[in-house]
Amino acid sequence: MVDSSVLSRAVSLASRAPSLHNTQPWRWVAYRGTLALHLDRRRIVTNTDDAGRQALISCGVMLDHLRVAMAAAGWRSSIHRFPNDRDPDLLATVSFTAADPEPTDLARADAILHRRTDRLPLLAPTDWTIVEAAVQDLLDGPDGVDPAPALLDTLAEELRPDLSRAASLTEAIRRFDSAYQRDLDWWTTPFEYTEGIPRTALTSVDESDRVEVNRSFPVEGRGHRRPGVGEDQAQILLLSTGGDTAADALGAGEALSRVLLECTVAGLATCPVTHVTELPEVRSAIAAVTAVDTVPQALIRVGQIPGALTENPAITPRRPVAEILRFAG
Prior knowledge:
It is a single chain. This protein has two domains: 4-115 and 315-327, NADH Oxidase (3-Layer(aba) Sandwich), CATH 3.40.109.10; 152-311, NADH Oxidase, CATH 3.40.109. Strands 3-4-2-1-9 form a five-stranded mixed beta sheet. A four-stranded antiparallel beta sheet has the order 5-6-8-7, sandwiched between helices. The chain has helices spanning 4-14, 53-72, 103-114, 128-140, 160-174, 178-187, 205-209, 246-265, 280-290, 321-324; strands at residues 26-31, 34-39, 75-81, 90-98, 151-154, 235-241, 269-273, 295-303, 325-327. The protein has 329 residues and is α+β, with helices and mostly antiparallel strands. GO terms for molecular function: oxidoreductase activity. InterPro entries: Nitroreductase-like, Nitroreductase/BluB.
């Protein structure tokens, strides 16, 4: 049976998973060496994510991060998703079997600590075809790992203006949505809490203007980081699923985790872009622009970080493990 201290450390590491506005909408229950992942509905940003889809994606990222953390600790995960039809908020139960960690397990666990959501302009990724192949292999499911039920497409550069227009459409619709704007202000507090997006992780007007495909947050200061990049040159990826169910959203999150970590291992910066899939009309526009017959779940910016480490995004806070993990026996 897995020791409780191992579970605590793994959940603590996995809690570095990104979530909408850093809301961390998850809670874990440990019982006799197993873990159960629950959706915490109290932490859904209802004016932004009324159906809870993005919260489920966030929980999917957390679930896969947990798998990675446990693999590095010497335990292989067996995941049973949505095990109870009468409890839709019980997203997964996870049991464990001892297994020697591979070097790739250790590298991905280390990537959890080093990954940041980078909203600044990025250079184009180097050796992208090699990294893309590694990411696709991971989505297909290496030995002992379930395939991720999501599709990843590398979008052509000529689609960038259309994607920018889709992002602008979202912003135009949201501009006079006072409830949405209140949520955005609340979760970008200037105070250091254990949740939300600190102002140190946001961008200035100049920096934001140089990234066409990104969410508009309350701007911070007048910084001009990465002046040598000019306009954002990041590769844009589309993550989509075959349907639009809760299981699809959870699976999209698991796939997102694998993309982010594999890119981090390769030395690339990433930034999930989910506001373009929040509204049905914009999701439809993204599907039409990209000519996919699947359901868009998220865009991902991937690129190279130039310059000094001082220009990299600040680490964002997380809730203590005692708030997200309960031992039931």
